[in-house]
Design brief:
81% helix; 2 domains; Rna Polymerase Sigma Factor, Chain: A
Length: 180
């Protein structure tokens, strides 16, 4: 691809590609970075452009894939920190030391149960319940169907409920044994 071709075919698509990325990542700065990365990649591979029959479709597919990659990476980064963030945003500073202790124990129990879920259910559960993504966003992020998202989420919720009930029963039994 020559410089003129880049200017006539690719640069006029910038605004549309930016809006497409922004619609996926929902973050203006990240969408700008993704677009910039795409333009740099396209420019560095300009010799390969002769074999592409529809450059516009190619650009849309590339920006979509880069945006979804960014979402996946962001979700992975947040997975390691998501429950502590939940802890910080969910409670006010005026809680008692006892309440804080109970909350920390509950969060530790939730982390423990979440770790027991299969990987796919864990990811879907985190994206829906912690990241508050829509079914469609999760499907796009994980590249699965919305139906599979719903099924995985249903199974994850059911398994979490079972695991939490088991832990509650164990805790109740321990309390009874301690009081005897």
């Amino acid at each position: 691809m020559k410089v003129d071709s880049f200017h006539t075919l690719i640069l006029p698509l910038r605004e549309k590609l930016f809006r497409h990325a922004l619609g996926i990542v929902k973050d203006r700065a990240e969408a700008e970075d993704i677009l910039q990365d795409l333009l740099l990649k396209l420019w560095s591979r300009r010799e390969e452009w002769e074999g592409i029959s529809n450059p516009e479709a190619y650009c849309y597919r590339a920006i979509r894939n880069m945006s979804l990659d960014w979402l996946t990476a962001a979700a992975n980064r947040k997975n390691a920190q998501s429950l502590p963030e939940l802890e910080e945003r969910s409670f006010i500073d005026s809680e008692s030391p006892h309440s804080r202790l109970v909350r920390k124990e509950q969060l530790a129990l939730i982390r423990q149960c979440l770790a027991q879920l299969p990987d796919k259910q864990q990811r879907v559960f985190r994206l829906r319940e912690i990241e508050e993504m829509s079914y469609r966003q999760i499907a796009e992020t994980l590249e699965i169907s919305e139906e599979l998202v719903k099924v995985s989420l249903f199974r994850a919720r059911r398994k979490m409920q079972e695991l939490l009930l088991e832990q509650e029963q164990i805790s109740d039994q321990m309390m009874r044994n301690a009081s005897e």
